[in-house]
Specification:
The complex is a heterodimer of chains A (255) and B (233). Chain A is α/β, with parallel strands linked by helices. Chain A has two domains: 141 residues, P-loop containing nucleotide triphosphate hydrolases (Rossmann fold), CATH 3.40.50; 71 residues, no CATH class. Chain A is 37% helix and 18% strand. In chain A, helix 3 packs across helix 4. The mean pLDDT of chain A is 89. Chain B is α/β, with parallel strands linked by helices. Chain B has a seven-stranded parallel beta sheet, with helices on both faces. Chain B has eight helices and seven strands. The chains are: A alpha/beta (255), B alpha/beta (233). The interface between A and B is medium-sized, with 37 and 29 residues. The structure holds adenosine-5'-triphosphate, guanosine-5'-diphosphate, magnesium ion (2 copies) and zinc ion. The site of adenosine-5'-triphosphate has 16 residues of chain A, from helix 1. One magnesium ion (MG) binds next to helix 1 of chain B.
Chain lengths: 255, 233
Amino acid sequence: MVREITILPGWDKSGNREDFTDINLKAGETIAIVGPTGSGKTALITDIELLAQGDTATKRRVLLNGQLPGDEVRYNPAYKPIAMITQNTKCFTDLTTEEFLQIHARARRIADQKIIQDTISLANKFTGEKIKKDTKVSVLSGGQTRSLLIADAILIGAAPVILLDEIENAGIFKQEVVELIQDTGKIIIFVTHDPAIALLTKKRLIMGNGGVRKVIYQNELELRAAQKLLELDRQVGVIREEIRAGHVITKVNLA
Amino acid sequence: MIIAGPPSAGKTALTKQILKRFQGELRIAYLKIDVVKAFEDIELRKEFKIMTRKIYSGDLCPDHAAVMVLGDAVDWAESHGADLFIVESAGLCLRCAPYLNQGLGIVVLSSISGIHAPEKMGAMVSLADVAVVTKIDLVSQAEREVFIQKIAEVHPRVILMETNALQGTSLHRLYDLILGSPEIEKHNLVLKGSPPLGTCTICVGKKEVGWKHHFGVVKKLDGPLAEYLFRGE
Ligand SMILES: Nc1ncnc2c1ncn2[C@@H]1O[C@H](COP(=O)(O)OP(=O)(O)OP(=O)(O)O)[C@@H](O)[C@H]1O
Ligand SMILES: Nc1nc2c(ncn2[C@@H]2O[C@H](COP(=O)(O)OP(=O)(O)O)[C@@H](O)[C@H]2O)c(=O)[nH]1
Ligand SMILES: [Mg+2]
Ligand SMILES: [Mg+2]
Ligand SMILES: [Zn+2]
């Protein structure tokens, strides 16, 4: 079981040592990684996903429960305690959704076939356009692909650590995703440009020039700001769905 | 070390990472085998200042050509005092496999090459010691795991690793394997797999490395064309 992830400092893009001794992420915590585009957000979660040992561009090292992860854990998907949703919104694999999930379930040593349908149903909660089990994954839209991969990470990946790279950008129902994975006892890390998601997390890592610049802890006021933003978001969401459905907006009353 | 895999899989990109890692630590020789065109020897010699060569197989199966010239090539690498000899195959023939009974046999597969590639590639995958999956920066983690699972189903004992070969991520394990790889005993180099049937002595199953052991269409690392077209004994 993963109780804790420790990130040990590496070097930023200019070759300066990162200015922290270690960053600890604990089970049950939600973390946001924020910063301008190109600042190294994806590189940081990729380090976590690969359980980097000085062998990535940043030269960071990542420990599991305070210890060096063994080769089995690093290289065998069946033992990998980490599921990552990347910024990619395309699958190349020439398989149907059902076949794809079946093989992934096999990779993760899951025998129960019910998980396939459960995963597709969960994905369909995140996307407006429903995914069918015999649709090829290579023809799914960006939003459908993202939805499927998030559902897959939650149910088939079923990992105690989930890394999500900019889930807000794929035209999916992010509220549903955020609600579903809060309070699960997992370590959830969001790379995000979305203020509501950023403020909802317990810790915020601020990136710049390829390095971690600062760690900020959530306070009472920020939490209230987040609730406000969520309410606003919900209202925007309602209007978005009206527009998507081809309706005409007939009244304006945003809070 | 034999690096095999289809064209554009990332064999050269992986080679460059290995060269970067061992530059200044090991003397490295490199041979590229290809059918009609290859540029790697010039590129790698310029960038890493190592000994490089190439050979075109022309009408021969490139893996057969490799068997023919490898005896000479090992001598060549040895005569230059190489600690590590890297052979990058053309990666075309899917019936032969260029791996030897000694050293490391590495198959390079791109994670965007299609889910059936590991099964279609036959001995190139199933006889490798190590499989390196490249281009993981281009696909989702789930898709990578599905691809890796396919390889593991074709070859359950292979040592698997994934990398972004442009950056050389997560290759520590490969570097350890290279460092731990024992000395080659050059008079006892034999093909790991059984070659397919055909018309030369490699084709009919002789597995010894080096043109001296073969007749039919024979090819040397050096020497005039006419001499290696036919060497009946
Ligand atoms: N510490 C570092 N040292 C060297 N290169 C780095 C470092 N951090 C990031 N990079 C490289 O910089 C580039 C941009 O980084 P990255 O993709 O992580 O940015 P990002 O913050 O995710 O941007 P976006 O918001 O556009 O997704 C990548 O090629 C990455 O490998
Ligand atoms: N994005 C990405 N591109 C790669 C990777 N590995 C190789 N490439 C690119 O793929 C192309 C073919 O790679 P190359 O090493 O020449 O393949 P080879 O024919 O097997 O030697 C080149 O343009 C490389 O830059 C990788 O891991 N990620
Ligand atoms: Mg990014
Ligand atoms: Mg090449
Ligand atoms: Zn052949």
